[in-house]
């Protein structure tokens, strides 16, 4: 929409972190959002456009967004097995006994 028009919402698009195709990661009225599925220590190009009932505006200039170098998380002993021992600050975990595989859940999920 033209600068003097009423804005109903915004569309945020990010590239793939390698200068590839843009994908829509947010569409709504808010000017703040959280984007999931980004890789650590990566830079993404972002662009925004506004829209209203008569159409969409032009894209903004590109800006670079840098993600954190490493993941920060804490373990959640309430959601993990009782056979695990957690430190007081929930930053480390160990098995009480044995060598079987166990699962400890945390505040952040990881996937490949």
Question: Describe it for me?
Answer:
The protein has 112 residues and is an all-beta fold. The chain has two domains: 9-66, Immunoglobulin-like (Sandwich), CATH 2.60.40.10; 71-112, no CATH class. The chain has strands spanning 9-14, 23-28, 43-52, 55-56, 63-66, 84-86, 93-95. The strands form two sheets. Strands 1, 2, 3, 4 and 5 form a five-stranded antiparallel beta sheet that branches. A two-stranded antiparallel ribbon has the order 6-7. The two termini are 40 Å apart.
Please report the distance between the alpha carbons of the first and last residues: 40 Å
CATH architecture field of the largest domain: Sandwich
Quickly count the helices: 0
CATH superfamily of the largest domain: Immunoglobulins
Mean pLDDT: 85
Helix content: under 10%
Strand content: 25-35%
Shape call = elongated
CATH topology of the largest domain, what is it called?
Immunoglobulin-like
GO cellular component, one term: neuron projection
Organism: Lygus hesperus (Western plant bug)
InterPro entries: E3_ligase_FN3/SPRY, FN3_dom, FN3_sf, Ig-like_fold
Protein name: Fibronectin type-III domain-containing protein
What is the secondary structure topology, with strand pairs?
Layout: E1 9-14, E2 23-28, E3 43-52, E4 55-56, E5 63-66, E6 84-86, E7 93-95
Antiparallel strand pairs: 1-2, 1-3, 3-4, 3-5, 6-7
Domain Fibronectin type-III: 1-70
Protein name: Fibronectin type-III domain-containing protein
Organism: Lygus hesperus (Western plant bug)
């Amino acid at each position: 929409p033209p600068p003097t028009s009423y804005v109903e919402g915004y569309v945020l698009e990010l590239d793939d972190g390698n200068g590839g195709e843009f994908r829509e990661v947010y569409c709504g009225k808010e000017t703040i959002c959280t984007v999931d599925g980004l890789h650590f220590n990566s830079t993404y190009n972002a662009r925004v456009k506004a829209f209203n009932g008569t159409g969409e505006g032009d894209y903004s200039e590109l800006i670079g967004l840098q993600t954190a170098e490493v993941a920060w998380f804490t373990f959640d002993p309430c959601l993990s097995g009782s056979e695990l021992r957690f430190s007081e600050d929930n930053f480390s975990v160990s098995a009480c006994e044995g060598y079987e595989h166990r699962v400890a859940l945390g505040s952040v999920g990881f996937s490949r």
